[in-house]
Amino acid sequence: MVNGELHFTNPDTYFDDVKRIFDMNEKELDEWESLIGFRSLRSIINDAHDAAGELTTADQIPAWKEKYRDVVSIEDSTVTAIIQDGYYQTIANRMGEYMIGDTYVKVLADRTLMILDGDRSRLGEALEMDQSDFDKGILVIDNGSTYEIELRTSCGSNQTQSGVSQNGNRKAHLKMNIREESSGGLSKTIVVIDQYGEKKGLFWRKYNTQHQLENVNYEAYDNNNVLVTRPLDYGHLVLIEVKDFRTIFSFDDLTLSNYYTITPKWESVKGRATTRGTQIGNGLRFAVGALRIALKRLVTVILLPRLNDNRIKTLNVPLR
Fold first, then answer.
1. Domain count, the chain
2. 284 CB-contact burial (10 Å; exposed 0-12 / middle 13-18 / buried 19+)
């Protein structure tokens, strides 16, 4: 960690280093950041959600907006991160920056810029680019468009599918994103699954709760244009209370970044997420076929017990 940024000193171990970071749950990430003196974009966004939960009158809102205007905005009465990709929120600082070897990385809302020689004076040039130019030594990675899918709608994007289900003043969210992961020299395809719950105050905002994920599976095309399918459905039960729970799966299509030329895309996606909210579980389930999404409000109420033993973290359940 240098000047408030994470510096991954060895590009050859970057993927392994990131995997170790994402193997930590949110509470462990908080402890790790405190230990090394780092404040991630994820932590600042969580602060914004917590502060939003403490707002009680409208005259308090302007000061809150001013304090966090660079990381969140209010959209449809919801506290919304400007950079929504949870992968980058975890490893970037408040400015959306980190380093991999000599490579300078700048994360934006819609794309990520990688300047391979680390010359930050070239950021203005990179900001004008919407695709990679290897002769210039600048990579542009599409973060994937995100659409929040309401119940009984049929739309989405090739790279991101997301759903939301509401039960009173609680919401459960599930988002699945497929995209390129790059060290600057090598790239591969990853799937990022984000779960989180929201509750209503003056605004909808994230809160600490328990999470359950069930029946997750997908078919997706990787950079080799090969259709990849999980052999078994995936699920887990998170017994500690956290705002977000994130799961990452990597594909076996590692290649030089200049040969990563096919944008990965979904063929089909399914999954079900549940949060524990005021004694009633809020569930959502979605399935995508030919890039079409359908959500159903769950009839079954799922109760997740409140446990005080924080040593219990996650139960990974392969669902057949």
1. 1
2. buried
